[in-house]
Structures are given as structure tokens and as C-alpha cells.
Amino acid sequence: MKRILVIPHSADKQVRVRLLEVGQALSRRYKVFCLDWQEPLRPSFPARLKAASFNALTPLRALNYKGISLVNIPFLHRPLSLAYWFNQRQILRFISSYKVDILLHGLNYFFPAPVKPSWGNKSYINIFDFNDLPAEEIKTRADRWVYSFTEKESRKADYITACSYSLKEYVKNNFSRDAVYVP
User: Fold this and answer.
1) Is the pLDDT of residue 36 over 70?
2) Beta-carbon neighbour count of residue 123 at 10 Å?
3) Strand partners, 181
4) pTM here?
């Protein structure tokens, strides 16, 4: 049975999250793991600190939720350069340990897809899902980082999906990659 790791763009279960719904549909035929994490309830500093502390100290665990396994792994929020490196290695560790065949991930800046290693599970398929525009205008340092992140993820992906025809065209025009429209 194929094993799929889904990394949605948000961990909020109070709203409809595209990749969580895709994961639930795929769980009828495959073993699906969905990355879960604590998001701040408010934009205040104490709420963000609480969520960041919880996520950094959480042990690897999986809970059943609507037919899929919600997975927690330790990860960092900031600084972004360290978080990028650390979180990428945590995901690779999970992929190797659980022998994941397919990585399906959305536009989430905390969770970059790992570069396929020269050891272990080299054959997983990397699918990058565009559910939103990364940055319309690149004026600030944060905008440049977001655009650069999206560009790197697009280059690493074996396949790219998009939730609209306009996003499909955006991927083609900005990253010279073909995307598959998946409503």
C-alpha cells in the first residue's frame, strides 16, 4: 500500500483546507499521514511564543483523525534560515522512517520539501500544490524570500498541481513549469 505524507498550507481544522480534504479522499485507498502543528490562536507575541514552544518540543507522534494519521514532528518557527534547514531535515527523517512514497505539500514556508538524499528512500514523488499566489509584487525582503521559496519548491517538485487555471498559468509564466489543474 502506498504511503502519502500531506503537508497542508494550514493546520486550522475549523476551515476547509484543500490538502487535508485531498488527504481524506486518498485515505480510502492509501495510508495517508498529514502533518499537524499548533498555530497561534491570536497574532499576539505570547500566543506566537506558546505555539512556537509547543511545536519545537513536541515529540514525533501520530493520531487518527477522520481516517488519516495526523503527525506531529518537532519543528522551528524562527529564525527562518535555521527553521528552513531544521524543518527540512525533520521531514526527511519522517519520510525515511515511515517509507513514504509520495510527498504532497502546499505553499507553507515552514516546511520545505527535502532534497532527495543519496541514501535511504530516494524514490518518493514530490508533488507541490499551488493553492494561492506566493507574492504578487516583490518589494520587500519578505516578499523576495517568499518568491524565492516558491521558486525553489517548484524546481524540486516532480509534479505541480494548481487549484485554478490562473494559478496554472502563473506557474507556467513565472517558473517555466507545467502544472496540472486539480479543482
Assistant:
1) yes
2) 7
3) 162
4) 0.88
